[in-house]
Amino acid sequence: xxxxxxxxxxxxxxxxxxxxxxxxxxxxxxxxxxxxxxxxxxxxxxxxxxxxxxxxxxxxxxxxxxxxxxxxxxxxxxxxxxxxxxxxxxxxxxxxxxxxxxxxxxxxxxxxxxxxxxxxxxxxxxxxxxxxxxxxxxxxxxxxxxxxxxxxxxxxxxxxxxxxxxxxxxxxxxxxxxxxxxxxxxxxxxxxxxxxxxxxxxxxxxxxxxxxxxxxxxxxxxxxxxxxxxxxxxxxxxxxxxxxxxxxxxxxxxxxxxxxxxxxxxxxxxxxxxxxxxxxxxxxxxxxxxxxxxxxxxxxxxxxxxxxxxxxxxxxxxxxxxxxxxxxxxxxx
Length: 333
What we know:
By secondary structure, this protein is an alpha/beta fold. The protein has 2 domains: 164 residues, Bordetella uptake gene, domain 1 (D-Maltodextrin-Binding Protein, domain 2); 122 residues, D-Maltodextrin-Binding Protein, domain 2. The chain has 12 helices and 10 strands. Strands 1, 2, 3, 4, 5, 6, 7, 8, 9 and 10 form a 10-stranded mixed sheet that branches. α2 crosses α10. It is elongated. It starts with 6 loop residues before the first helix and ends in a 5-residue tail after the last helix.
């Protein structure tokens, strides 16, 4: 009896071995041609805000460089959870990105549960900028220095109020950290918006306020508010005349720093080559003079980073603000 022929099986194996290099090269070729369709950046806030404006500035410059549209999609709701959930569930191909900030890092300590892990469910790409906060008073207030603020708050704590926007915001936590380090037991009064905070300050319902540089800069330059100090680690380049809390607040506040940031992430599993391409494009966009000028006008210092550095920022912020949140006994939503 003739032995059964094995050639068909061998032929299939040979064909597979010949095709293997092509199959292995296909993902590499696809990632090298990225992007071949529009890229979307999801923002967890409504249009017109700081984060939205920053991203649109960045997106326009990236689109010019990559030769593809970069679309900004607003998905407000649930403190940014809606937007983050959308991106965490998106295809990990680099075409759906998320704007993140310090709020994303410490959100696990403000909410009872999240439908995603803020670090593990995302591929870090780059920071895009850092921003700080201002301790401000009304222009007619007798409070001119951090020492004045601390002294007045110690003298009459029941009648000394610090205004911020909503509980759990970066402004609120910055004010809480300031009060704790200065040894103050004063009310920190939350408002719905920056406009409400400024109105309360002008009406003397609060004595000082903690607000982003962006939120208060126009009023400061216009002369209706006085910038007492910044929360930055060093004087801000475009506000050189305003001291930091650390340099002007005495020994108790000598290590005080509060800064926030924006960054860009993608769904976990996004190919490394795509992450590297996006990182390069972000860095290139942030080096453009017109982008830098726009960021500074908004009160933001443009700053790119490696993916690893963005992850470290996440972890450092989460650890720092977790302590502040727990000490303040802020109830989880």
